[in-house]
Write a structure and sequence with these properties.
By secondary structure, the protein is α+β, with helices and mostly antiparallel strands. The protein has seven helices and 18 strands.
């Protein structure tokens, strides 16, 4: 007998349909096996697909909704746009202004308000772990750019709020937009470090009203919006005086791949260390349907 599972398809970190980062959410995944969830993630072929395992209202509100995040290549312990998008679906379904997800990295709360006339969600990520610094020439070589394209005024450093990213500052928007790296070269470098991915940023932006331009290139291509990197990036900015503590920095991403995204990020500073990292944005529902197995 066929089993049917309801799903919602969203564009996350966007106010306009067909922008931002795509996500499929299965709000009640009871009965699915690990192998089936992985196969469904391959079927959607999105950067991530999420599966929620609700219990009672009391348990879900206290502990958080048990949620698993699958990419095409495997399960992820944490990812930003799946956290925001999944919480937004549950917020609408349950009529809640705060939703917590119980993820592999722990309990992540997301609070919803209204901004610019639309629902706006903001998650509190784990406090950042400030990792090692990287040698500029070696990173430039791994990215296939000239050393002069990188901004030597600030360190290249690994930062993690769940996934470790090497934050790489570029001198100009032109240099950053022109990056066409070879993944094999990037991967060879990253395997010898404490970072899993690069997050490339520039203070020069396309939209002059935002604070930073970003790109995240990985083995599967390029990510339109990376909430799990925006948190480390704003922590890095606050730690190195690029942004003020508590200041909201809007990060534009996905421009080069024609899926513009806007990520709102901020971090406090306590005793010289970034804490209380918050990452937010809007979500747009574009598809709703059923999957039959």
């Amino acid at each position: 007998m066929a089993r049917t599972y309801h799903f919602v398809w969203l564009d996350v970190f966007a106010k306009t349909p067909l922008e931002g980062n795509q996500l499929a959410v299965f709000p009640n995944a009871h009965g699915l096996t690990d192998a089936e969830m992985q196969s469904i993630a391959r079927e959607t072929h999105l950067s991530e697909t999420t599966f929620v395992f609700p219990e009672s209202d009391a348990v879900d509100q206290e502990r958080g909704y048990t949620t698993r995040i699958f990419a095409v290549m495997g399960e992820m312990p944490f990812a930003g746009h799946p956290t925001l998008g999944t919480a937004s679906v549950l917020s609408r379904m349950k009529g809640l202004t705060e939703v917590a997800l119980a993820l592999k990295v722990g309990r992540i709360p997301v609070r919803f308000t209204v901004r610019e006339g639309l629902p706006f969600g903001e998650m509190v990520q784990n406090d950042p772990e400030m990792g090692s610094t990287h040698e500029l020439p070696a990173v430039a070589k791994a990215l296939g750019v000239a050393p002069g394209d990188l901004d030597a005024r600030h360190p290249i450093q690994t930062v993690s709020t769940g996934v470790p990213f090497a934050i790489v500052p570029f001198r100009s928007l032109r240099a950053l937009s022109g990056v066409r790296p070879n993944w094999a070269s990037m991967d060879e470098y990253l395997r010898g470090t404490d970072a899993k991915f690069f997050y490339l940023i520039s203070a020069e932006t396309v939209d002059r009203s935002v604070g930073a331009h970003a790109r995240m290139i990985f083995s599967g291509g390029e990510d339109p919006a990376t909430g799990s990197a925006a948190g480390p990036a704003v922590a890095w900015m606050v730690a190195h005086g690029v942004a003020k503590a508590g200041e909201t920095v809007m990060i534009e991403q996905g421009v080069e791949m024609h899926r513009p995204s806007h990520i709102y990020a901020r971090s406090d500073l306590r005793e010289g260390r970034p804490v209380n990292v918050r990452v937010g944005g809007h979500c747009v529902q574009v598809i709703e349907g059923e999957l039959s197995l």
